[in-house]
């Protein structure tokens, strides 16, 4: 089997090849490390690559398999981890100078579970600073580029993870989603991105942005891969007070089912029209017709309070962010500026935060601090929480009529790097469709459904009630299998990495 063929195979197929002995974990890991070395100078998807640690893990998996040990379906498969997950022995910077070179003394629960399942951690992926962004342009270490067009963004905040998977630098990756940071990058890079039910995957050891919104999830190239990785990552964790104490549904079984007959699918009325590109809407409606043709009942559903979700989010998120990022005070860990013995604590703290945080981080910190300030908390933060309740009620009413809801994942395809940096509102609107699910805490995912006339990926968002994550995979599995037949192969097989230079569409 050729190296190129191995690189482009989905994780579940690689797991089967590893189990059968047709390929070794060390061989597979080295192949991906070579791909990273060739493409990362162009794409900037990885901030840290742990080549030695990855090869050591891979060799240990090969040895365990040779000794007859029973290993999981993904044991020996390489994976990339977003750089806001604490990793013992590897830096965790959150894309910020504030944590440059900081190495955590422990692993996040998700990372612990990856290691226990035998996954090989290649390194840490680039992200918007402290997950604040929709384009991976606010990273202190430079933007990540979209493998489909290196002049365009790969989405954010987890653009490094999505770009790594899209460019075959890793078959799997881990991300976190606060307002769309897994799903929006998935849409614009042609990958699968899943935001599990809030509390379905542990947040312990994930550097907090907005604690009531953050949720880790999988980034993959196929629906089944996402389900298998979700099963590894998910489940109750006593270290996380928000973790749900009940088992996950049968996710990989749902992904394999590939049948939507009898499902009730609600098309969200509010997500379309002005501001949505024609190609995005065209691919979305084509996907809806596939669902209808396969026996799903499709109805239009109105969720009127979704129109206010963006505004509510941009008060709740910065408020929680302001509280969480107060810990970066130059006193305990991370960056410290101006501590020459002549300055007091407050001055050192001010200088450090002024130099350590980037422009977007400061913008959101100021908004959040103001929204929580005396005399304004009820007016802003309190009012936003009331809107959040209304959004959740809209979902409850919709799910009384439907099994899942669908919408475009993003209003547009990937925009050009630098295009929206001077227009924050335009940037924020990239998460227009994804934010409601974070406010309500339900499950949501983006699956690729085709290309625009410019040859750029388009995604469909599927939304399910809390702890009904299996419905996402049932719909995603059907769409993937149906579209692969139409396209004569997976969407990402149309991309050919040109070693050392760039990635182009075939």
From TrEMBL:
It catalyses: L-glutamyl-tRNA(Gln) + L-glutamine + ATP + H2O = L-glutaminyl-tRNA(Gln) + L-glutamate + ADP + phosphate + H(+). The keyword Ligase applies. Gene3D superfamilies: Amidase signature (AS) domain. It is an enzyme of class 6 (ligase). It comes from the Bacteria. Residues 27-472 form the Amidase domain. Keywords: ATP-binding, Ligase, Nucleotide-binding, Protein biosynthesis, Transferase. Its EC number is 6.3.5.7. One of its GO terms (cellular component) is glutamyl-tRNA(Gln) amidotransferase complex. Pfam families: Amidase (PF01425). GO terms for molecular function: ATP binding; glutaminyl-tRNA synthase (glutamine-hydrolyzing) activity; transferase activity. GO terms for biological process: translation. The active site is at 82 (charge relay system), 157 (charge relay system), 181 (acyl-ester intermediate). NCBIfam families: gatA (TIGR00132). Allows the formation of correctly charged Gln-tRNA(Gln) through the transamidation of misacylated Glu-tRNA(Gln) in organisms which lack glutaminyl-tRNA synthetase. The reaction takes place in the presence of glutamine and ATP through an activated gamma-phospho-Glu-tRNA(Gln). Heterotrimer of A, B and C subunits. Belongs to the amidase family. GatA subfamily. This is Glutamyl-tRNA(Gln) amidotransferase subunit A. It comes from Tessaracoccus rhinocerotis. The gene is gatA.
């Amino acid at each position: 089997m050729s190296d190129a063929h191995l690189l482009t195979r989905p994780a579940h197929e690689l797991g089967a090849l590893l189990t059968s002995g047709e390929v070794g974990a060390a061989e597979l890991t080295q192949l991906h490390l070579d791909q990273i070395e060739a493409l990362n100078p162009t794409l900037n998807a990885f901030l840290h690559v742990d080549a030695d640690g990855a090869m050591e893990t891979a060799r240990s998996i090969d040895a365990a398999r040779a000794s007859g040990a029973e290993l999981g379906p993904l044991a020996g498969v390489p994976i990339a981890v977003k750089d806001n997950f604490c990793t013992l022995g590897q830096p965790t910077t959150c894309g910020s100078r504030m944590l440059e070179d900081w190495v955590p003394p422990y692993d996040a629960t998700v990372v612990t579970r990856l290691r226990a399942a035998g996954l090989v951690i290649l390194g840490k992926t680039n992200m918007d600073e402290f997950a604040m962004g929709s384009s991976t342009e606010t990273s202190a270490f430079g933007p990540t580029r979209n493998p489909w067009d290196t002049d365009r963004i790969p989405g954010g905040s987890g653009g490094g993870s999505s770009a790594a998977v899209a460019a075959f630098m890793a078959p799997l990756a881990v991300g976190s989603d606060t307002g769309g940071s897994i799903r929006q990058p998935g849409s614009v890079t042609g990958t699968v991105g899943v935001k599990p039910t809030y509390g379905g995957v542990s947040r312990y050891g994930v550097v907090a942005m907005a604690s009531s919104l953050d949720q880790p999830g999988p980034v993959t190239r196929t629906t089944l891969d996402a389900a298998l990785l979700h099963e590894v990552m998910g489940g109750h964790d006593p270290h996380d007070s928000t973790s749900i104490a009940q088992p996950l549904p049968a996710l990989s079984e749902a992904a394999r089912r590939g049948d939507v007959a009898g499902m009730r699918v609600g098309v969200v009325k509010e997500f379309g029209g002005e501001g949505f590109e024609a190609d995005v809407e065209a691919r979305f409606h084509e996907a809806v017709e596939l669902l209808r043709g396969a026996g799903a009942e499709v109805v239009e559903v109105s969720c009127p309070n979704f129109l206010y979700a963006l505004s509510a989010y941009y008060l709740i998120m910065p408020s929680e962010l302001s509280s969480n990022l107060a810990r970066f005070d130059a006193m305990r860990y991370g960056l410290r500026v101006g501590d020459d013995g002549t300055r007091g604590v407050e001055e050192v703290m001010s200088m450090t935060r002024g130099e350590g945080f980037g422009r977007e981080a400061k913008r959101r910190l100021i908004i959040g601090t103001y929204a929580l300030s005396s005399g304004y908390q009820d007016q802003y933060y309190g009012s936003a929480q009331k809107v959040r309740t209304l959004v959740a009620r809209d979902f409850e009413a919709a799910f009384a009529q439907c099994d899942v809801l669908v919408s475009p994942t993003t209003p547009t395809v990937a925009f050009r790097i630098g295009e929206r940096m001077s227009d924050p509102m335009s940037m924020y609107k990239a998460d227009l469709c994804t934010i409601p699910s974070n406010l309500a805490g339900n499950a949501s995912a983006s699956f690729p459904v085709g290309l625009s006339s410019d040859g750029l990926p388009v995604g469909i968002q599927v939304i399910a009630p809390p702890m009904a994550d299996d419905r996402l995979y049932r719909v995603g599995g059907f769409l993937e299998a149906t579209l692969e037949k139409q396209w004569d192969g997976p969407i990402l097989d149309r991309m050919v990495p040109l070693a050392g230079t760039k990635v182009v569409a075939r």
